Amino acid sequence: MKIVRENPSVSLIIPAYNESVLLPRLLASVERAQKKIADSNGEAEIIVADNCSTDTTAQIAAERGCRVVTVEQRCIAAVRNAGAKIAKGEILAFVDADSIIHENTFVHLREILSGEKFVGGATGVTLERWSFGITAIYLLHLPILWLTKMDTGVVFCRREDFERIGGYDESRLFAEDVAFLLALRRLGKTRRQSLVRATRVKAVASTRKFDEHGDWYYFGLIWHLAASMMFGKDKEKIADYYWYKPNR
Predict the structure, then answer these.
(1) Does any domain span residue 4?
(2) Helices 76-85 & 176-189, crossing angle to 10 degrees?
(3) How far apart are alpha carbons 222 and 237 in whole angstroms?
(4) Do the domain assignments include residue 3?
(5) What CATH number has the domain bearing residue 127?
(6) What are the counts of helices (DSSP H) followed by strands (DSSP E) for the chain?
(7) Could you give the residue ranges of the DSSP H alpha helices within the chain?
(8) Tell me, what's the pLDDT at 231?
(9) How far from 132 is each of 7, 124, 140, 213, CA to CA, in Å?
(10) Which residue from 82, 190, 203, 233 puts its CA 20 to 30 A from 34's CA?
């Protein structure tokens, strides 16, 4: 991977905890995307925000030419923010370490944000495997995506706008990505800008949570989250089970 020394066009921030198995495949896809933007006179730096991994995540990232920042706080929002804090790019982009990005990702994000129509957005995803249960959950989300333009995958915005909305909300143990896009959308409305779903460069998302919890697990998760919001209980327990104490 090319080590970026000048001010890059894009900074990709990858939060990571014990990702030695899947991080290499993401970085391989990132290298292809770096070559594409280099062909159009741009650069992309890669930052791995290592959340005190106990495996070789940080070593792998450093050996592949990534900038590595260690984050002790076990809060995904804080991990994302720590990566953004050291970023040099005009555009900040965030992706999970178990993903694979499209080779034209950096080029397309730069094209989108070269104008003033959009405040930011996300690429959306396809999944690495499908089943009836996974498809049902995917279809359940489509109307929300169409109506709100809020998606997952590679989430991106201008660095100045990231700072203006205060980054990710570190008081949240989960759903910080939803809150971030809501804040970004509110900012955009003040300037007649909208969010965009950059579906030409969809990322590939891992299905390991489905592998671990079952292909229908999301419906149970929705129930637990709804109960948590109504009764204000077990938020930390839910966060630990699904996000902070993974089987890896």
Answers:
(1) no
(2) 50
(3) 14
(4) no
(5) 3.90.550.10
(6) 10, 9
(7) 23-39, 57-63, 76-85, 105-112, 132-148, 159-164, 176-189, 208-213, 217-231, 235-239
(8) 45
(9) 45, 20, 12, 15
(10) 82
Residue 226's Cβ-count burial label (10 Å; 0-12, 13-18, 19+) is exposed
94-104 pLDDT tens trace: 999 999 999 99
- Location of structure tokens 């003040």: 190
Distance from C-alpha of 91 to C-alpha of 106, rounded to nearest angstrom: 9
Give, as one character, the DSSP assignment of residue 226. H
Question: Has residue 114 been placed in a domain?
Answer: yes
Residues 6+ apart with CB under 8 A from 155: 93, 94, 95, 120, 121, 122, 177, 180, 181
Q: How much is the mean pLDDT over the chain? A: 89
Q: What is the pLDDT of residues 60-83, one digit of tens each?
A: 999 999 999 999 999 999 999 999
Report residue 159 as tokens. 């660095």
Q: Note the pTM of the prediction, 2 decimals.
A: 0.89
Could you tell me if residue 59 is inside a domain?
yes
Domain of 49 in residue numbering reads as 10-244
Q: For residues 183 and 165, is the Cβ–Cβ distance under 8 A?
A: yes
Q: Structure tokens of 212?
A: 């671990």
Domain count, the chain: 1
Place of tokens 């915005």: 157
For residues 131 and 50, is the Cβ–Cβ distance under 8 A? Answer: no
